[in-house]
UniProtKB/TrEMBL annotation:
The active site is at T104. The record marks D103, T104 as: Cleavage. Belongs to the Ntn-hydrolase family. One of its GO terms (molecular function) is threonine-type endopeptidase activity. This is Uncharacterized protein. InterPro entries: Ntn_hydrolases_N, Peptidase_T2, Taspase1.
Length: 264
């Protein structure tokens, strides 16, 4: 089952709201009505209140760092707008700066019976339009889980939604004997080389993948962004392990790819 929320303010932990919506997919409604799998805006906020999911004042969720970043970007944006008619002479690199500011958090979990669950949460891209819903709330773009593969994504939401990258990665892994090769081809052919993104210069994405098959598991991660932080832990580990994955020196984000993995 799948559940998601988007463009919602004042919910302390939106992922808990998404989980509740997901769980309610199994509960039939009267008169043959269909339980929603995605709620947004004020409707999502009312749903949270009705189901006792913690809500808070929206301002309490805004950190000092977020305010500073917003003010900085608005200053750069306004300066850019003032020089729009002279953009050939006023190349600030601001577009690239906006695209590199990502804050998605994703998780893939496998229990002792081999069941896979995934979750994805994001504050969205900087200076986004009010009401925008990104890939984190879209099944197949932000996350995917089936009987043996779980995937979560990060990057530019519009690019991830256009290519349904999480779902395509899972499909390619199912069709291949080598999950590493399958993930590599997903990025090279289904993202960097996708005709759906032919008009996009810098293609930014990252995937965290777990495959469980025949009592063994494979955790893979790949990204075209400058970096991607990964943490993982098994039940027999005393503490989690972490790694900051980076593109090779001299590589350009949006054009190059790093892919690594861990077996378990």
């Amino acid at each position: 089952t799948f559940g998601a929320c988007g463009a919602v303010t004042g919910v302390k932990n939106p992922v808990l709201l998404a989980r509740h919506i997901c769980d309610q997919q199994r509960v039939p409604l009267s008169l043959g009505r269909i339980p929603p799998c995605l709620l947004a805006g004020e409707g999502a906020h009312r749903y949270a209140i009705e189901h006792n999911i913690a809500t808070v004042a929206p301002d309490s969720l805004i950190s000092d760092k977020a305010i500073r970043t917003f003010k900085h970007c608005m200053k750069r944006f306004n300066r850019h707008q003032e020089h729009e008619d002279k953009r050939m002479k006023y190349n600030t690199g601001f577009t690239s700066e906006l695209q590199k500011q990502m804050d998605t958090v994703g998780a893939v979990c496998v229990d002792t019976k081999g069941n896979i669950a995934v979750a994805c949460s994001s504050g969205g891209v900087l200076l986004k339009r009010s009401g925008r819903i990104g890939q984190a709330a879209m099944q197949g773009a932000g996350c995917w889980a089936d009987s043996t593969v779980g995937v979560v994504s990060t990057g530019c939401g519009e690019h991830l939604m256009a290519t349904c990258l999480a779902r395509e990665a899972a499909r390619n892994i199912h069709a291949s004997d080598c999950p590493t090769s399958a993930l590599h081809s997903t990025f090279v052919d289904g993202f960097l080389g996708s005709p759906l993104l032919s008009n996009v210069e810098e293609k930014l994405a990252g995937l965290l993948v777990i495959q469980v098959k025949g009592g063994r598991g494979e955790m893979l991660y790949a990204h075209t962004t400058d970096s991607m932080c990964i943490g993982y832990m098994a039940t027999n580990n005393k503490k989690p392990k972490s790694r900051m994955s980076r593109l090779p020196a001299g590589s350009k984000h949006g054009f190059s790819l790093t892919l690594e993995g861990v077996s378990f």
